């Protein structure tokens, strides 16, 4: 379950960023996770529940935004939604495309609690 190491890395990054601002508590954390990233959302949510214990984000609201996979056909340049790395272009049936969106895993925002 690589989601646990990902969750631990997210916690480390958030703690590091918050320490730069001398913040104390994170009110909300927003993550973007692409459907093509290889991350199982439910596994990440479970891993985050464990990784945030006894940290500055333990009581934070965590929002995960899923980013739909988008591919671009290498033949006709048509962009289309996809769930598979190798999907035929729905416009010209060409088999080769480039994933241009949906591989993301990023921290979109960290909202600090004001005192």
Q: Top keywords for this entry?
A:
2 helices, three-stranded mixed β-sheet, elongated, hypothetical protein PF0899 fold, three-stranded antiparallel β-sheet, 26% helix, alpha+beta, single chain, 115 residues
As for the number of domains, it is 1
Let me know the number of strands.
6
What is the number of helical segments per DSSP (H or I, 4+ residues)?
2
**So, CATH architecture?**
2-Layer Sandwich
The sequence of SSEs as H and E is HEHEEEEE
Q: Which structural class do the helices and strands define?
A: alpha+beta
Q: Which fold name corresponds to the CATH topology?
A: hypothetical protein PF0899 fold
Helix content: 25-40%
The biggest sheet amounts to: 3 strands, mixed
Distance between the termini: 37 Å
Taking pLDDT < 50 over at least 5 consecutive residues as the criterion, the unreliable ranges are: none
């Amino acid at each position: 379950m690589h989601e646990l190491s990902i969750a631990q890395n997210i916690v480390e990054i958030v703690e590091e960023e918050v320490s730069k601002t001398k913040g104390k508590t994170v009110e909300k954390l927003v993550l973007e996770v692409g459907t093509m990233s290889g991350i199982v959302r439910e596994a990440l949510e479970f891993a985050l529940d464990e990784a945030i214990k006894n940290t500055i984000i333990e009581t934070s609201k965590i929002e995960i935004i899923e980013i739909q996979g988008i591919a671009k056909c290498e033949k006709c340049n048509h962009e289309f939604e996809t769930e598979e790395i190798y999907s035929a272009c729905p416009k010209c049936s060409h088999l080769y495309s480039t994933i241009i969106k949906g591989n993301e895993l990023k921290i979109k925002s960290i909202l600090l609690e004001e005192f």
